[in-house]
Specification:
12 strands, alpha/beta, elongated, 21 helices, about 575 residues, single chain, six-stranded mixed sheet
Length: about 575
């Protein structure tokens, strides 16, 4: 784990991480020799009345203190730079990894959990990394050096540490073993809390429309209480860290004062040596305190590191490593050859079963079926958002697994069931389809999607700022913008997944007419709930429970398919 984390440091941050311990060593070296000079000031200067010795050894103390300060400042600067860079790289790696995820990979993590890992968990790792290159170097070196100097001054008094340090180490070990799983549980509760907040903010209009603020507050309070309880449960063990440390510190001070005082009275030790010894004791105990702090942070960061690596080491469900770089989609033909698919990858629970059909390049295909009939699942297999469990899918005469993912997906434009727009201007959102599109091309696509007129009704036209998720446009306007964005890609295949459900029938008809004119050579697949949206398609696929029930024209299905006829009749009654 440490080796993998080290690999995420850029060379410039790696240099900073290496320089920090060197500066720390120099700082500790200066600090360790200051008490020794203080003993000389007392023994040779004050007790013997030698002002020259006071000035000499006092001056050395001042120089050492200034050098220690300088090295400490340098260590702080390099450690901050290294830890911030480390956190940036980890966060980038996490985000890049998520971008490589297939839909199946994303399904294994909640959005809130990924947000927590990118924020709280990375911050914990940043703090732990900074402590490791500073305190984890400083504390052991100071502990060993100060103990050595204390033993040099008086070996008998130094034996006290042989009793205290093992007690402290054993206690911290027990606390670490018991606390780690509790911190893991606490972070899981954080995920649930973030999920609650995200859901509430995303659906805030629905909450207010149904006057459910009190209900949402109750749910949030329950999640907040869960986080508090999990945190208290973890802290119940960690709180023992402080009392044990204090007990060891004060026990050492009392023992040293008692035995040191007896040695001075007996003439076996000088006052300056005892003062110097007590200074070393303070350094030793401060080192132990810092180790205790590091211990707490490492327990927390270990849980965070585990969660981070769950994402970084998540095996990619889809890869194109074996795909040919020079293979391109020659046309929009599509073939489903005995395709089976399951989200759970379990052949006993298939979402699509033995699906076989072919679409000629340039055809317009409608897809009709009840809720849960796997309409969206069917089309998501075409750009390889998921992989088939059995059988194969051909696009342009080649298995979709033979294409590079970028190559395939650039030729398959999808307007998903859930329309998503991003913060920025309308023009910036449309350029997602083709970042090099001219204003003329943008307007042409928007006219085809029946979006140009409402865009121009805004004071800023195509430069109108959209709120996050496109909250300042209606559902129908959002759908038309997403259709225009897809058209700008000039793909060989266009998939409209119930993407005109929020527009009126007249606008829907105009969009389909524009498609017939502008996309005459493009394969178009239209998933719809309304028969009128697909009735003029070349062929219509009727899905039922993940299987193809029938394929034919509007007239053929009205005559020979019960499901299609029933849907048509129910909708005609609704119109009447």
């Amino acid at each position: 784990m440490i080796k993998q984390f080290w690999g995420y440091l850029e060379p410039r941050y790696r240099r900073q991480a290496i320089l920090t311990p060197l500066f720390i060593l120099a700082e500790v070296f200066m600090e360790v020799f200051i008490p020794l000079q203080m003993a000389q000031v007392i023994n040779l200067g004050i007790q013997q009345g030698d002002m020259g010795a006071v000035l000499k050894h006092g001056g050395i103390m001042v120089v050492m203190a200034l050098l220690s300060l300088l090295f400490g400042v340098l260590a702080a600067k390099t450690s901050v730079n290294a830890s911030v860079g480390f956190a940036k790289n980890i966060r980038q790696q996490l985000f890049h990894r998520v971008q490589d995820f297939s839909f199946a990979n994303v399904d294994r993590f909640s959005t809130a959990s990924l947000v927590t890992r990118l924020t709280t968990d990375v911050t914990n790792m940043q703090m732990a990394f900074m402590m490791c290159i500073r305190m984890l170097v400083r504390s052991p070196v100071m502990l060993v050096s100060a103990t050595f100097m204390a033993a040099y001054i008086n070996p008998q008094l130094a034996l006290i540490f042989l009793v205290v340090i093992p007690v402290l180490g054993a206690t911290l070990g027990v606390i670490a073993a018991k606390t780690f799983p509790r911190f893991q549980a606490m972070l899981t509760k954080y995920d649930a809390l973030n999920a609650r907040v995200q859901e509430n903010l995303t659906a805030i209009r629905v909450v207010k429309a149904f006057v459910r603020e009190d209900y949402e507050i109750e749910k949030f309070d329950a999640s907040a209480d869960d986080v508090r309880d999990a945190m208290v449960r973890a802290e119940k063990l960690l709180v023992w860290n402080g009392p044990v440390m204090q007990f060891c510190m004060y026990g050492c001070m009392i023992a040293i004062s008692w035995f040191g005082g007896r040695l001075i009275i007996g003439g076996a030790m000088q006052l300056g040596d005892l003062m110097s010894f007590i200074s070393y004791v303070s350094q030793i105990l401060m080192s132990l305190m810092m180790l205790s702090m590091i211990f707490v942070m490492l327990v927390m960061s270990r849980a965070s590191a585990t969660r981070i690596f769950e994402v970084l080491n998540e095996p990619l469900d889809l890869t194109d490593d074996d795909a040919a770089d020079d293979l391109f989609v020659k046309d929009g033909s599509i073939v489903f050859d005995h395709v089976d698919f399951s989200y759970s990858k379990d052949k006993t629970t298939l979402n699509l079963s033995d699906v076989t059909f072919s679409i000629a390049s340039g055809e317009t295909i409608g897809v009709i079926g009840g809720t849960g009939s796997a309409k969206s699942t069917l089309v998501q297999l075409i750009p390889r958002l998921y992989d088939v469990l059995g059988g194969r899918i051909l696009v342009g005469g080649k298995d979709v697994r033979d294409y590079k993912l970028d190559t395939l997906r650039r030729q398959v434009a999808m307007v998903l069931q859930k329309n998503v727009l991003f913060s920025g201007t309308i023009r910036e959102n449309l350029l997602w389809g083709n970042e090099n599109a001219t204003q003329e091309q943008i307007e042409e696509a928007c006219r085809a999607a029946q979006a140009h007129d409402f865009i121009m009704s805004f004071p800023d036209g195509y430069e109108t700022e959209l709120g996050q998720g496109g909250v300042n446009v209606s559902g129908g306007q959002k759908q038309r913008l997403c259709i225009a964005r897809a058209l700008l890609a000039h793909p060989k295949i266009v998939i409209l997944d119930d993407s005109t459900s929020a527009v009126d029938t007249a606008t829907d008809s105009k969009i389909r007419a524009a498609f017939r004119e502008k996309l005459a050579g493009t394969t178009t697949i239209i998933i719809a709930q309304r028969i009128t949206s697909v009735m003029d398609a070349d062929r219509i696929i009727v899905l039922d429970d993940g299987k193809i029930d029938a394929i034919g024209t509007h007239e053929q299905l009205l005559e020979g398919n019960a499901i299609y006829r029933e849907v048509h009749e129910s909708q005609q009654k609704g119109v009447a």
